[in-house]
Amino acid sequence: MYSENFIKNYTLANLEKKIIELGYEKYRALQILNGIYVDRVQKFEQISTLPNTLKNILDDTFLINSIKLLKKRQSLDGSIKYLFQLNDGKSIEAVYMPWYDEHNGEIERITLCISTMAGCPVGCAFCATATLGLIRNLDTSEIIDQILFVENDLSIKISNIVFMGMGEPLLNYKNVINSIELLTLPENKLLSRKKITLSTVGITNKIKQLANSRSPVKLAISLHATTNGFREKIIPLAKSVKINDLMDSIEYYYRKTHLPITYEYIPFENFNDTFEDAKRLAKILKRVPSRVNLIPFNDISFTGVSGLSQTLKSSSKEKILEFGNQIKEFGGVVTIRDTFGTDIEAACGQLALKEG
Ligand code: SF4
Fold this sequence. Notes:
- This protein is an alpha/beta fold.
- Helices cover 33% and strands 19% of the residues.
- It has helices at 12-21, 28-38, 52-61, 140-154, 173-184, 204-211, 228-234, 243-257, 275-285, 308-311, 317-329; strands spanning 67-74, 80-86, 91-100, 107-113, 117-119, 134-137, 160-163, 196-200, 218-222, 261-265, 290-294, 334-336.
- Iron/sulfur cluster binds next to loops.
């Protein structure tokens, strides 16, 4: 099955072109998107605004769904890890995370963490997905279908999307940007740009390209170290992307979009959690309006990998608190993040297609 067979690979402009090629009026494209994204039809014949001849052509030409559920695991904290199968048999994961109001205990927002690749080529030492290597990029429909599937499955409306699952989104730029365009198209009634966060290790030319695109979203930078030497030890790609160059691209992004930046930082014991790190991190945070999320390291020993990932140890809770306070004293804005789904290996850095 080719990617052009999946209807969700088409942005509005591309679908309009295709519909004209098929001999129909341009406005039919929007009616089709409305059927797919608003009414969530599972067959083209259910789109009542279309003429029967076009419905038949669409049935012969396109498929609506590009992923199917293989397995679902629910955590004690309410998060759910979805294992999906793609059309060619490859697998990916997505994680549903409900955030509860601490006063009344009701769900106040729902975040879905989605994948942009099967596997990942970047090789971060703290990440289970890295052990898979790159299997392949996801196409636009496979990215979007993770959201539509979970919404339909749980009969809920997802309030926030984070491109933080398997893969480096900016190395699958075109499909990611097309998915953002479809997700934020007002007529599709899905999400606003401000509800979407894209997490990257820092592909500087693509950060600038995203800044200049029609759909810039919130950016989260996987920083994890404050010197080039230490960053290179845990993110191989950092050998070619120095922190100064990364900061230049981030400043450019902020100037163009005025969207505040989030940094992600996993404090590792006696590695990147020193007083000097706190000082340097605060300095980085003050370059443009930003905050840092301190994320406790999640165990990835279940992947059976050896090397640095086996020697990296999470800083203790007390140390993370102290590190956070030091950053604050130097003027940085800090959040210590809750971890979702550790009991089902669904937490940050733990996605590795383990089915157990
Ligand atoms: S942290 Fe992100 S970029 Fe790094 S290996 Fe994992 S999925 Fe890839």
